[in-house]
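To whoever picks this up:

The nightly regression suite flagged Calcium-activated chloride channel N-terminal domain-containing protein as changed. Nothing in the input moved, so I suspect the structure step. Input below, exactly as stored in the fixture:
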Amino acid sequence: MVFSLKVILFLSLLLSPVLKSLLVTLNNNGYDGIVIAINPSVPEDEKLIQNIKEMVTEASTYLFHATKQRAYFRNADVIVADLYLKYRDDPYTLQYGQCGDKGQYIHFTPNFLLTNNLATYGPRGRVFVHEWAHLWWEVFDEYNVDRPFYISRRNTTEATRCSTRITGYMVLNECKGASCIARPFRRDSKTGLYEAKCTFIPKRSQTAKESIVFMQNLDSVTEFCTEKTHNKEAPNLQNKMCDHRSTWDVIMSSEDFQHLSPMTEINLPRPTFSLLKSKQRVVCLVLDKSGSMNAVR
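Regenerated output under the current build:
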């Protein structure tokens, strides 16, 4: 199965002409042809390369279990390519399309790959799978920083999340400079919602397995929300863009899994990597100005 899409896991932003002909293929449950492009301005660092390899390897196993043994990452090329940088450390995927389309690229920075951010993001391999779901299956975030709470049909105030089986508590921190203190929060008398800046903090100990596109850094989360566990009431982008369909429903509707059965062999091969460097192609044009081309033959 071949898709005419450039899948670039950027350490920088714009697509380089040298990468435009690359294709990602899904063969015998394994994704081939993934390209991780590093801007040449990023200092050479063996640890960076090693962390990229570890991230993809960890992501392969996580993806395999999340897709119920249907897909993993077989290989990836790490290439130094002339791209523009954007200084932002939060991982993200550029998405212009509709639900179920393909995204543009995933963006990681060297700082993200070299710094231990387990408390914020979770293991890098899990972040990779979260962003891959945005990129390859065009599903959308199940949280909403602009509307973190909503009033449910049962007239209860709920955190915007999937699934609702994820438990937690509300916190409001008031900060002055580097000093922050927690104080009791209040409800808005008009909306019934918690006041602005109130935050939902999931408990570290959970039993819910969903959802990777909500909060992959929770240890218990290893699956996508299904029709059974999907929170259709949440005011998030997934419900808005996908007509309240679950992420798993969108993923299973993709061409990847229309005729693909789960693997029976659970001993996954480790992904293989190639380290490459792009080169500018030199084209020479030779012109004959002697007039010999006009001679009668």
